[in-house]
Design a protein that fits this description.
- The protein has 324 residues and is α/β, with parallel strands linked by helices.
- The chain has helices at 42-49, 75-79, 97-107, 112-125, 141-153, 171-186, 198-204, 238-260, 305-309; strands at residues 2-9, 19-26, 31-35, 57-62, 65-66, 82-86, 159-163, 190-194, 207-212, 215-220.
- Among the domains are: 1-81 and 158-225, Rossmann fold; 92-156, no CATH class.
- 31% of the residues lie in helices and 17% in strands.
- A hairpin with a 2-residue loop joins strand 4 (57-62) and strand 5.
- The longest helix is centred in the C-terminal third of the chain and has 23 residues, at 238-260.
- The chain is globular, with a radius of gyration of 19 Å.
- It binds adenosine-5'-triphosphate and magnesium ion.
- Magnesium ion is lined by residues 42-43, 163, 194.
- It is a peripheral membrane protein.
- Residues 262-302 are annotated as: Disordered.
Length: 324
């Protein structure tokens, strides 16, 4: 679904490459943490997946498309399949919650009928029903990030990229956002999240790709953050430590809940428009099929939201979709 083939990236005017020979493959339905010290290349990777940047060497293949060969005209269509959220939320300050989420759909020409159905569903999924008329400055940071996530998923993307989505939030709010991302992933959306939050990475036990100075130094299923010596201290104050423990306990509970749900759903195989087989895996962690267990949204009072949002069933895409 997302493949980096020996990717290097050199930004103009810099001597050291931002990425060097990065090589990995992410399967449909995976939740992957991208970790590493500041400047290690996490955001550069995400920008390449979104085709905001292109590789200097190597290939980036996303949803069956070699992004090098994707014409500028097709880039906006390609991006419809990829939602993204950032540390700084990036909401439009003069638009309401509803308008912020609807904006994406308006830009791509969705019908008013679709918008009036999809936007409330996305807002309900992120727990913001009833706040449609608020402006961003009338929301907490966590609520603003929820709006950003609703905006990112309202168009039913197959991939959700999150670049430090909890970077501006307190630990308790961060765990809410982590739970939301885990729920979106459990419904079938592939999630790639860049983060410095060692605690979440350690507790969530998902796949971890670690970068160091642009070099991929680890690709591990169910890993922890690893060498945290390069990270800023995460526990300077006792109060924060207590909140973080409570937050992580909540994540663990969610994980247990997901693990105990009978795995009846399956993730369809990724269509591969290319005739070439994927390159041989060079670590043990490659190619492990991830089966996302279904999450019962009935307890949220949203029994049909996931299916209507397309979070659990994928349709054929438009002209740049993987099935075209
Ligand atoms: N547009 C750019 N022009 C030149 N150099 C860049 C550009 N963007 C990133 N870099 C450099 O590439 C390297 C990787 O940056 P990147 O933003 O990917 O790191 P990061 O892992 O996301 O860091 P952080 O954790 O601080 O967000 C850094 O050395 C950075 O200075
Ligand atoms: Mg970054």
């Amino acid at each position: 679904m997302i493949r980096f083939e020996h990717v290097s990236k050199r930004y103009r005017g810099t001597s050291k490459p931002a990425l060097s020979d990065v090589d990995f493959e992410i399967q449909r339905g995976e939740f992957v943490f991208l970790v590493g010290a500041s400047g290690s290349g996490k955001s550069s990777c995400l920008r390449m997946i979104l085709r905001e940047d292109t590789a200097s060497e190597g290939r980036v293949v996303v949803l069956g498309r070699d992004l090098r060969g994707l014409s500028t005209r097709k880039v906006p269509y390609f991006r419809r399949h990829i939602g993204s959220v950032f540390q700084d939320f990036r909401l439009l300050p003069n638009k309401t919650v509803f308008q912020n989420v609807a904006f994406t759909l308006q830009v791509i020409g969705s019908s008013r009928a679709f918008i009036s159905q999809a936007v409330p569903e996305a807002l309900a999924l992120v727990g913001l029903a009833g706040k449609e008329k608020r402006f961003p400055h009338e929301l907490s940071g966590g609520e603003q990030q929820r709006v950003a996530i609703a905006r990112a998923i309202v168009n039913r993307p197959q991939v959700l990229l999150a670049d430090e989505p909890t970077g501006n939030l307190d630990p308790a709010t961060s765990v809410d956002i982590m739970q939301l991302l885990a729920r979106i992933n459990a419904n079938g959306t592939t999630v790639v999240m860049a983060t410095h939050e060692a605690g979440f990475v350690d507790q969530m036990q998902r796949r971890v790709i670690e970068l160091s100075g642009g070099v991929m130094v680890r690709d591990e299923v169910g890993g922890g953050y690893g060498d945290t010596s390069a990270l800023p201290s995460l526990a300077p104050e006792p109060a924060r430590g207590a909140a973080a423990v409570a937050a992580l306990t909540a994540v663990l509970e969610l994980q247990r809940e997901i693990a105990e749900t009978p795995p009846t759903a399956h993730v369809p195989a990724e269509p591969q428009p290319e005739s070439q087989p994927a390159p041989a895996a060079s670590t043990e962690t490659r190619g492990i099929p991830i089966v996302a267990p279904p999450v019962d949204l009935a307890d949220l009072g949203l029994p049909d939201v996931a299916s209507r949002l397309g979070l659990d069933e994928r349709e054929g895409g438009d002209e740049v979709g993987p099935t075209s």
